[in-house]
Amino acid sequence: MAKRARLIYNPSSGREEMKKKLPDILQRLERGGLETSTHATIGEGDATLAAAEAVERGFDIVIAAGGDGTLYEVINGLAEKEHRPALGILPLGTTNDFARALSIPRNWEAACDLIIRQHTRLIDVGKANQRYFINIAGGGSLTELTYEVPSKLKTMIGQLAYYIKGIEKLPRLRPIEMHVKTDEMEVHEQVMMFLVTNSNSVGGFEKLAPEASLDDGLLDVFILKKCNLAEFIRIVTLALRGEHLNDPHIIHTSTRKIEITSPDYVQVNLDGELGGTLPCTISVLPSHLNIIVDESGSSTYRVKHSFPRLGKIDS
Question: Where is the signal peptide (predicted)?
Fold first, then answer.
């Protein structure tokens, strides 16, 4: 009996390439033995509702087609369900950090064939208050960049939109008072930003969290203390080479749970999307989702890529 798949796609992601490829994608999945129906998202939060509905309707596989924003919404539709079907990923957005972390090919034919083979691995999921993420949670001046790039601009010029906004924003970076508490440490500092990572692929910085793994039951925490613009640029340069962990401006630990508060108004960025504001309690749900991956991939899900980016989102 053929397995039933629900393909949830964002018609506007990745310069609208999904709409053009949809007939070919469906044909390839059907020929591979997956009885596939589709849901085109119509606005913010719709992919979350569609994923939850797919679980209720008993689909065997849910496929998220788009960029990191589409994937984030689908994860939030699946994470709270008792029965969670396998999740396939078609990385067709402006940025695809999580697909990179799992070595899922950008080529749509190869990504479809991978889904057809249905080789799965259990991965950890992060929970921030009542929302879920699989790649990164963050807060501070620079992380707000991802909400500031207009969706039409992203569709038209893709990654360049982030560089334009990032360069524009650098002189306005400001420190924020934060209190950060884990079982391993407690910090009360003026900080530029914090990042809580589940994978090693963060905004294109493959060496930002070199020891991070999607299946170790831990989250990696990075805090960038108050610094000036010149120091910030130097630390970013170090981070590209993976040489930032010993810098005195960086605080790093691995943990299962973290509590972050601030007297200031601080937005929380989850996988490139607005995920509420501080205070925030972030924890890890070990081995929580079954993701369809390449059977030849390593168990630590590390990937080699070197395309630095300043932010990520898809609409």
Answer: none
- Going by their DSSP bridges, the two strands 34-40 and 61-66 should be labelled as unpaired
Q: Which residues are catalytic?
A: 273
Place of tokens 């396939």: 88
This prediction's pTM: 0.85
CA distance 168 to 199: 28
Pairing of strands 267-270, 250-255: unpaired
> What domains are defined for the chain?
3-123+288-292 (3.40.50.10330), 131-287 (2.60.200.40)
Residue 266 one-letter amino acid: V
- For 100-117, the pLDDT digits (tens) are 888 899 999 999 999 999
Q: Cα(312)–Cα(272) distance, rounded to whole angstroms?
A: 5
d(C-alpha 190, C-alpha 60), whole Å: 47
- One-letter amino acid at 196 equals V
